[in-house]
Amino acid sequence: MSKHRAKILIVDDEEHLRRSLKVILEAKQYNVRMAADGEEALAMAAADPPDLVILDLCLPGKSGLEVCRELRAWLNVPILVLSVIVREADKITALDLGADDYITKPYAIGELLARVRALLRRASTSSTLPPVVDFNGLNIDFSRRRVELDGTEVKLTPKEYDILVLLVKHADCVVTNRTILESVWGSDYMDDMQTLRVHISNLRRKIEPYPTSQHFIKNEPSVGYRFITEPVEE
Description:
This protein has helices at about 15-25, 40-45, 65-70, 90-95, 110-125, 160-170, 175-185, 195-205, and strands spanning about 5-10, 30-35, 50-55, 80-85, 100-105, 130-135, 140, 145-150, 150-155, 175, 215-220, 225. The longest helix has 16 residues, at about 110-125. It is of the alpha/beta class.
């Protein structure tokens, strides 16, 4: 039986970008289709649902944010926003509307492929975490709420542990500041960025190999944080 080739729908109004991205993805054995605007993308997704959507925000007619909202209403597959827009508010809005991750043009091919792999991997596995996971020496035993780094136990506060688990559940994908605050502290704390920064700083100090590194927890400025499980190929 042949191996399933993940179907990826590229939605971008710039033909040369669509085609270059198609070449990159097909070289990795993905099955790629392309749409030049929102209406075409919605029709193609309805006719043959993809496994992942790569969506530009700047589209003629129906905007990328509208497309994201309409897709998410019925399609439960990863949506990766790929856009020249760099305003944090637009990124957060896309994520709030149901996008799973974003990457800004111009992009590094290695980073793009890593994001695609992460999203497809997360979509294909159960949302239930295994009892124990290990990421490059960082061992998390969920059954005992125990964390070890290179075999040595790391003492985390309950909130630090909850943040770590939330990021690991969405490994390699961005989790917004507001999502972390609401999930860990509740809706009354959704704008308390200082509390989040302090706890992230303390968590990093305990689990990162070097005090100022972002080996495990990467900051996405003004948007949120990402737990890194694999190095980015250049």
